[in-house]
Design a protein that fits this description.
- With 537 residues, the protein is mainly α.
- It has 19 helices and 8 strands.
- It has a two-stranded antiparallel sheet with strand order 1-2. A two-stranded antiparallel sheet has the order 3-4. It has a two-stranded antiparallel ribbon with strand order 5-8.
- β6 and β7 form a beta hairpin.
- α2 runs parallel beside α11, α6 runs antiparallel to α13 and α12 runs antiparallel to α13.
């Protein structure tokens, strides 16, 4: 008897035992994935080399993390809401939600970055191996489809959508804060209503403690956050080459700004500010690492552009690993100098610690250079993550798990234009409504989950297809994937319960959509039905 196409079917064997039919875990053959990517109607333009890939990675990694959240990672989070910035207009924009308190790393934040870099280094090796073997758009989604099957692929694809979207919402809010500071530099003071989110869970006060907005919703919209996302959406629709060239310029400018900060500010370091080096011990170092973890996920976005790479087998591993090395060096240099300039406690709740520290110390025009570099850093981060998000949707649609419109390719620019526009509105509108504290913590759990599944994919392919050619193989045998899985699970276990609740709610919504649409429209499902019909004839 032929079973219907349900989520889980059972079949009775001759022995009388009942087993689950593996329909939910049907896999895509790697060779077929590569063939499908060459379909002229849905083929992306190949124009990226290793230098552009590295630039994309740096553009994603060196963004909001180094210019915004390191203040929280250094000084920690407290229960009460506070006025966060000394800049009169910047304080209007960014507020952290109240929390039960998290100890800061203090000057030992440099160790936090080293520890996170080691964890991400093992994950980067796993990504590099799979990206070179499966140079297809979609990153972790595509890798899990080829190794663990359709259901797991849907889960991680749905998770990546959340990861990229929430990260960029937080980045765009941080960008808006720096735009307001830039306007303040020139004496321009826009209406508070149009530079603050509509939802402020902790309310808003000025430097004198006067209440500007009570906690909750108010009439307003963060226009700079929306505008920058939509401008980048237009650039991304016009083409990957144009997007990469724009990103290259911004990456160069922000690296120059970081080097200017390190070179100039290093002369004003007071070594006494480094003592005590680790005021909250290892708990503070680990907490600091958990706060800044999402800043390292840029190499994931490098792998999402695999299908637009000229020589993916060679260029992808170089781009991913080089990104991690360069960004770790820059991160450590910045935090060592920053914590040497001022007491680490002064960075509490500061959403623009680098720029504001320079303002407090009277760095004058040098601060303007760093502020412009910070803006370029966040723009390039937004650009790369918006690119990655659209490519994930494109890959899922091409496999039939999302409607076909999401895999539509622009006839002239050869980019997934519909996916790119939807991603733009999905990020821009919530960024105008919500504060950065509401957004920032959701990204880490999705990132860790994706890293763990990619590492598992490496183990599976090492066992299932040991003889498949590998242009790059993670050294150390099973060390890289095993360490990646264990450390990711450990860090996930330490995340707040609210993160887990939101994560599972998102996954439940995704599973409902998969059951209603993806399972029935999957390319593999249609192929199985056609094969059965042909066999029946």
């Amino acid at each position: 008897m032929r079973g219907r196409a349900t989520g889980v079917r059972v079949s009775r064997l001759c022995s009388g035992k009942v087993r689950l039919d593996p329909q939910l875990f049907r896999k895509k053959d790697i060779d077929q994935l590569i063939v499908d990517s060459e379909n002229p109607e849905k083929r992306l333009k190949k124009s990226l080399g290793w230098l552009s890939l590295t630039s994309l990675g740096i553009g994603a990694v060196i963004g909001s993390g180094i210019f915004t959240v390191i203040g929280t990672a250094i000084a920690g989070q407290k229960l009460q809401a506070k006025s966060i910035l000394n800049a009169p207009l910047l304080e209007y924009l960014i507020y952290h939600s109240a929390s039960f308190g998290r100890p800061g790393a203090g000057p030992a934040i440099a160790l936090s970055f080293v520890l996170v870099a080691i964890v991400c280094g093992f994950a980067a090796l796993c990504y590099a191996e799979l990206a070179a073997m499966i140079p297809i758009a979609g990153s972790a989604y595509t890798y899990t489809y080829a190794t663990m099957g359709e259901l797991i692929a849907w889960i991680i694809g749905w998770d990546l959508i959340l990861e990229y979207a929430v990260s960029n919402m937080a980045v765009s809010v941080g960008f808006s804060a720096h735009v307001v500071d830039l306007l303040d530099w020139f004496g321009i003071h826009p209406s508070l209503r149009w530079i603050t989110p509509a939802y402020l869970p902790s309310g808003l006060t000025d430097l004198q403690g006067n209440t500007l907005y009570a906690p909750g919703w108010h009439f307003g919209f963060n226009l700079p956050a929306l505008i920058i996302v939509m401008l980048l959406t237009v650039i991304l629709v016009r083409g990957i080459r144009e997007s990469a060239e724009t990103n290259n310029v911004m990456v160069l400018l922000k690296i120059v700004a970081i080097l200017v900060f390190v070179g100039v500010a290093a002369r004003y370091i007071h070594p006494a500010n480094w003592h005590p080096f680790a005021p909250n011990g290892w708990p503070g170092i680990l907490t600091g690492g958990s706060i800044i973890f999402f800043t390292y996920i840029g190499f994931d976005s490098v792998s999402t552009a695999a299908e637009e790479c000229k020589n993916p087998q060679k260029d992808l591993p170089i781009g991913i690993i080089t990104t991690l090395i360069i960004c770790t060096i820059l991160y450590i240099a910045v935090v060592v100098v920053l914590t040497g300039l001022v007491p680490w406690q002064s960075l509490l709740d500061d959403a623009a610690p680098v720029v504001n520290t320079m303002k407090r110390l009277g760095f004058g025009n040098v601060r303007l250079v760093v502020l412009l570099g910070a803006l370029m850093g966040m723009i390039s981060s937004l650009l790369v993550f918006q690119l990655g998000q659209a490519r994930v949707w494109f890959a899922m649609s091409r496999d039939g798990l999302l409607p076909g419109l999401f895999s539509r390719v622009h006839p002239r620019f050869r980019t997934p234009d519909f996916s790119t526009w939807v991603a733009g509105f999905l990020v821009g509108i919530p960024a105008g409504l919500l504060d950065i504290g509401t957004l920032a913590d959701l990204s880490n759990i999705g990132t860790l989950f994706a890293f763990a599944l990619v590492a598992a994919g490496v183990l599976i392919l090492r066992y299932r297809e040991p003889d498949r050619p590998r242009a790059f193989r993670a050294p150390g045998g099973l060390l890289a994937p095993v360490v990646t899985i264990l450390t990711c699970l450990l860090l996930m276990a330490g995340l707040p319960i609210t993160n887990w609740i939101r994560f599972f709610v998102w996954l439940i919504i995704g599973l409902v959509l998969y059951n209603l649409y993806g399972r029935r429209h999957s390319q593999l499902s249609n192929a199985n039905i056609q094969a059965a019909a042909t066999k029946g004839k």
